[in-house]
Amino acid sequence: MPASAGIGDDRVMTTSSPGPLALRERALGPDLTRGVMLLLIALANSHYFLVGEPRRGGFPLDGSTSDAVLRWVVPTFVDGRAYPLFGLLFGYGVAQVVRRSSPRPPSVVRRILWRRALVLVVVGLVHGLLLYVGDILAAYGVLLFLGAWAVRWRDGWLLTIGVVMTVMVGLPSEGTLAVSTDGPTPAELPRDLATMLAARPPTQVYVALLGPIGFVGPFALGLWAGRRRVLERPAEHRRLLRVVAVGGLAAAVVGAQPVALVLSRLRATPSADTLGVIGPLHDATGVLGGLGYAAALALVADRLERSGRSDGRVVQALVAVGRRSMTCYVLQSVVWTLAFTPFLLDLSGRLSVTSTAVLALLTWLGTVLVADRMARRDARGPLESLVRRVGYGGVR
């Protein structure tokens, strides 16, 4: 699956130069949202490594009461909700890059975006081969190669694409992860290094080429929102943000219940035809949930700034993660590799849903500490620096 949502340049735009601004000039809302989003990403990714039967939706269905509770909480608030948020923020960031580069000819802007896309593809393929085969950085790179043509499309087209793709996600299908009974593959849990190097490339190609389809809708909506600086200037869009926050999160919670109740075993597993309906419903309302999270956190950022609490230690630590989200995303994968790879710690069969959620939380907290230390030195994340250096290289 994510990525880094910090691939874009969500900042306060104070210059026409296409180069990156100082970190202190970036807007609070998008970075705060990215920082929180990475916790959701950690929770969404880690439980798919667990083994055990029976299973559904990436969870072993046996376990303690706390496991059952989490099998309701995670599908309701995390799975299928975190990655649409990721896609929205990615599109938003691309819109910011385009705005900063707007004095340049469209061909120059496309070259900037394509260079950034190339970095994402290369880093994503290396990341997927050596660390986390579910990497989505390469998929976002492919999406950006194509999306570079969409940055000049009219607003109506972007909104239409966003709505149509969200509706298509909700069409009946048997292929959704929300209700799948599949367990970890040899590419995810390779028994040795040779298996890892042989099994992962085909999976990476599949994810990189087909993964962008599911992110087109959130990406288009992110482009639209980025043009209006909705997350950077929440005071100007407060009514819209409130409607999207309440409506999107409510739809996500309600739409998740058919799946969440089955996974928590509060409801018997329905027929295959019914699963083919409730799985896509879970995913489609998850797109709305991703929008809701972005809107709600923008409102939180607005409240923090108006109350003068945006410089608080916790807030700034979360912002530091958001500003280095690509680096922090890859750092999460280091933990998953060490913990779950069979020829390393091999914890897939020993951890429960609950202990894996604790591991995800601790991993995210660890990245918060690392990012906060970088922020105190006014240093960018190494991967963010790489994207900017290559993306703007040779552009005057």
Describe the structure.
The protein has 396 residues and is an all-alpha fold. It has helices at residues 28-46, 65-77, 82-100, 106-130, 137-147, 155-169, 193-228, 238-263, 272-307, 313-323, 325-340, 353-376, 382-392, and strands at residues 55-56, 59-60. A two-stranded antiparallel ribbon has the order 1-2. A hairpin with a 2-residue loop joins strand 1 (55-56) and strand 2 (59-60). Helix 6 crosses helix 7 (193-228) and helix 6 (155-169) packs across helix 9. The longest helix is centred in the middle third of the chain and has 36 residues, at 193-228.
List the helices and strands and how they pair.
Layout: H1 28-46, E1 55-56, E2 59-60, H2 65-77, H3 82-100, H4 106-130, H5 137-147, H6 155-169, H7 193-228, H8 238-263, H9 272-307, H10 313-323, H11 325-340, H12 353-376, H13 382-392
Antiparallel strand pairs: 1-2
Helix pairs in contact: 1-3, 1-9, 1-10, 1-11, 1-12, 2-8, 3-7, 3-9, 4-5, 4-7, 4-13, 5-7, 6-7, 6-9, 8-9, 10-12, 11-12
